[in-house]
Amino acid sequence: MDWTRGHAIGHGSTATVSVATSIQSGDVFAVKSVELSQSEFLQREQQILSSIASPFIVSYKGCDITRENNKVMYNLFLEYMPNGTLGNAIHANDGGRLDESLIGNYTYQILRGLDYVHLKGLVHCDIKSSNILVGQNGVKIADFGCAKRVEQAGPIAGTPMFMAPEVARGEDQGFASDIWALGCTVIEMVSGGTPWHNVSDPVSTIYRVGYSDQLPEFPCCLSEEARDFLDKCLRRDPKERWTASQLLKHPFLVGDFNPHVVKQVQESNSSSNSPTSILDQGLWNSSLDESESLENLVSIPSSSESSASERIRCLSLLSGAPSWGWDDRNWITIRGNSSDEGDTIMDDIEDKDGIVSYGLGKQNSHIDSKELLTSLDSDISNRIINDIWASCKYRKVSFVKPPESRLISQS
Ligand SMILES: Nc1ncnc2c1ncn2[C@@H]1O[C@H](COP(=O)(O)OP(=O)(O)OP(=O)(O)O)[C@@H](O)[C@H]1O
């Protein structure tokens, strides 16, 4: 197919998404592109998307390779979703909360997509509001860059805030993990906030999700039905969680045509800052982060083909801003001198000799690899690094040694 690339409409950690137009038909679609040499994730997404088709999943329209500005690009063609992400819709809404019947309707549509994907033997692995796109008739699941076959072993993937406990512990990532993430997404829609409070960074999130006995806080303003729905999604034991097909019968969901809900979807979309047409170029462009441009991505070897130290060295080369969504003032001690910093989150290792403090940072962070590698003797720190590595899809984090004044206590 001959096509022309329009303006960029979104940046992810792995690719840039632009509007595109078919020269023959004039049809508008979205194109997700990355340099061919860094297209492993996108090609994996292409393989998965090309094998599925559902009205509740952003549809696949083909792929090709182009040469643009002396770069060889891999392009994945997708159905164009004009109204931005569900995350945009939540935050554009007054107070960040959506009406419960609208949430019931969106949740129904996401579940229909998840039920379909699970029946195909696939796990999405990264359900969250920013991976749900809003169209004229509701929402669809997007971004299958982390998806895998359920039986496929491999590193954990996804976003720490939305990870199920078994995923955070690196044990398993199956259908039930998507259901947990769906519960977290419902909390996002209800509260306008994140599922876990008082966690300032990915490491403490992974630790709390995986190794505490806590659940995300259920927002207070929920109906009994919504509370019960969340209870069925957010069980720490994955075997106790309801499946997508069980949940589809839950009374919280609004699945049938409902004029009240349709009106709200339209109002929500029109009040959202998300573009409502491809002509809203200025709006999209203003949200783009130059530091996340393709040029700033560094190709990093996978865990199977490199040592931890090599992968960390590559992480240290990252110059793009990792998109954790946390303020970079929120440093965390993942290991520390037990004497003066209070309890660190890693009680098990804080007494070990020769351990220095590290934090996680954004933008132009660097790693003092010698110090970090000294600390790699510990199985636990290795495990954390591997977990972070995997959860970051290899690109979103770098380690730094924070200035003393920026260390925070986790007690
Ligand atoms: N089909 C589409 N139609 C319209 N906009 C889209 C489409 N696909 C993606 N986008 C926009 O591009 C952004 C990035 O897309 P996507 O999440 O698929 O990229 P990614 O690199 O896989 O991101 P992530 O960092 O979540 O891994 C989305 O948040 C959304 O704003």
From TrEMBL:
Binding site for ATP: K32
Compartments in which it is found: Nucleus
Protein name: mitogen-activated protein kinase kinase kinase
Gene Ontology terms for molecular function: ATP binding; MAP kinase kinase kinase activity; protein kinase binding
Swiss-Prot/TrEMBL GO biological process terms: abscisic acid-activated signaling pathway; response to osmotic stress
Organism: Dovyalis caffra
Catalytic activity: L-seryl-[protein] + ATP = O-phospho-L-seryl-[protein] + ADP + H(+); L-threonyl-[protein] + ATP = O-phospho-L-threonyl-[protein] + ADP + H(+)
Source organism superkingdom: Eukaryota
Signal peptide: none
UniProt keywords, alphabetically: Abscisic acid signaling pathway, ATP-binding, Kinase, Nucleotide-binding, Nucleus, Phosphoprotein, Serine/threonine-protein kinase, Transferase
This enzyme's EC code(s): 2.7.11.25
Family from the record: Belongs to the protein kinase superfamily.
Protein kinase domain residues: 3-253
Pfam families assigned: Pkinase
InterPro entries documented for this protein: Kinase-like_dom_sf, Plant_MAPKKK, Prot_kinase_dom, Protein_kinase_ATP_BS, Ser/Thr_kinase_AS
UniProt KW Transferase keyword: yes
One annotated Gene Ontology cellular component of this protein: nucleus
Main location: nucleus
